[in-house]
Amino acid sequence: MQPDPRGVKKLRAIQRAFATGIMRPLASGHRMQSKWTDGTSSRRVVAEFIKPNDRLTSFERLEIYNKQYWFRLLDSLHEDFPGLRTLIGEDRFYDLSVAYLTKHPSDSFTLRDLGRHLEKYLAKEPRWTAPHHALARDIVRLEWAHIVAFDGEAFPPLEIDALLDGGDPAQLKLGVQPCITFLACAYPVDDFILAVRRREEPRGEASNAMNERIKRKAPKKLARPRPEKIWLAVHRSNNAVYYKRLEEPAYLICSALQKGLPLQAACERALRRRKTGPDFGAKLQGWFAQWASFGWFYR
Amino acid sequence: MPANRFNNFTNYGIGIGLRVPHYQHILSRKPTVDWFEIISENFMVDAGRPLHVLDQILEQYRVVQHGVAMYLGSTDGLDREHLRRLKRLVKRTNTPWLSDHLCWGSVDGRYTHDLLPLPYTFAAASHVAQRIREVRDYLEVPILVENVSSYAEFCASEMSEWEFLSEVVEKADAGILLDVNNIYVSSQNHNFNPYDYLNHIPHDRVGQVHIAGHSKFEKYILDTHDHPVLDPVWKMYAHATRLTGPTATLLEWDDRIPSFDEVHCEALKAGKFCKELLPQTVQAV
Asked: A222, A220, A150: which is closest to A180 by C-alpha?
């Protein structure tokens, strides 16, 4: 028997009202907001679809879910972006997270994807990271690349011999594993993130119920990195994530290959952009041998 | 009814949830465990360490998948990407059955990442039942739906929670993952007798049981999964076992997780309950 469309429509209306209530940011004291989105009393609106009981009002019952929603999502961002949090401080990170999640509610079944719009959001809202916006941007890009490298897609890799037997370099296209991200950074954020991660203990898995915002000790301050151009490959090897520094020509080649350029065109791009010495050919061979040993390429 | 069509005619015994803090212990010590339950979504990834660990576990143990994000009660269309990944994982684990919650959690493409209660209406029951059938047809594995703990009740409800659960599983011809702790938590939050719940569901559809700990606050109880199982829940579990027969049982411990041995020891208490209580006569409380 097909469900009654009117009944499903009513169900959808209830779910929209419920979601509206729980996804609105918490007011002070971690309370649910007293005014609804239209400016009327939240108590009155919530009482229209949630029953009270002998201990809790309708408002207080929905408030339990409102708190759980925010504590769970804030905790997830807290764990995923320790570097950004360290840079801008816990309180500012908390406010940024609330603003970000209000603008970009989760659009994926997995919390893993929660931060995927953060870099773009910060580009539009630089006030959250001022006056260190460029540094913050590099940190967020690296932290998102780390998430991608941890469990992103990877195909059976090409061995170096198979890579060299690939035929005409002008035509040869090498697939670069989707889990790898190549980054050009204005700051040595790899060292910074590694230092941050070393001092933070991994969090245990949380239950579905989040009855309080997880409180943590404020970590010791780390020195902010000074500007220094670096080029990174964020990759996975033996199921561990690594940040590998590259020379600029190597970065140019790899990122060109990842964009789909043929091997020869990718190498020429690097040669055009950077002066290279007479030993560049040997260097190039060494790079490709190493990258192939890391399993970076597939066909 | 230990083995039935809802748990694919298996008799799995006592299992525990596979959790990150225990990975090293399990892989190095290889403790004897009847089976592990995994949270499907933790392994619905493309590659990397989660799947590497899972493959090692699968070499040694029986694994059953339990989901937290299918949102069978949502009014959005089924998430095809979620289902595609889920099916890929089902093939990998060869899970004999698959469970998820009788709840909703997303609307208009926005995800709350929570297990939200449904209004207990006939329309909602039909809607959920149709989605369960769709999911089962696609995944080609028996589906169990789990009752959730809740902190709110809807004005629109037309029946009790156990009547709603029964309506859904009968209409969908699905099984039940009976979470005894969730019934207890909801009974305290909504002032009903938890034994009415246990007595009035279709016992022949119960394919698995969950037990867990909870936390008591001043005005409500929260399903925190961060404690040992409390006495009232053990008593309910004993009663449920009399009604359903010894059924595959899983201890959930998801926060403030103690050592593997402590969790396993707590889970094994369920086996003792079954043995001690089975000879007794079934009596409604």
From this structure: A150
Dihedral of CA atoms A134, A135, A136, A137 in degrees, nearest 10, equals: 50
pTM of structure: 0.92
Question: ipTM score here?
Answer: 0.94
User: Residue A144 in 3-state DSSP?
Assistant: helix
Euclidean distance between CA atoms B217 and A165, whole angstroms: 68
Q: Taking a contact as any Cβ pair under 8 Å apart, which residues of chain B between 17 and 56 contact chain A?
A: 19-21, 41, 44-52
CA distance A241 to chain B (A): 9
Q: Which residues of chain B make contact with A150, given a CB cutoff of 8 A?
A: 48-49
The answer as to whether B285 is a domain residue is no
Cβ separation A64–B220 shorter than 8 A = yes
Q: Residue B96 has what DSSP assignment?
A: S
Token reading at A81: 């972006």
CB B185 within 8 A of CB B148: no
> For residue B197, what are the domain limits?
5-277
Residue where the block lists tokens 């289902």:
B83
State both tokens at A210.
């989040």
Report the CATH number that the domain containing residue B167 is assigned in CATH: 3.20.20.150
> pLDDT for A46-95, tens place per residue?
999 999 999 999 999 999 999 999 999 999 999 999 999 999 999 999 99
Output the CA torsion A244→A248→A251→A255 (10° steps).
150
Low-confidence ranges of chain A (pLDDT < 70): 1, 166, 201-220, 274
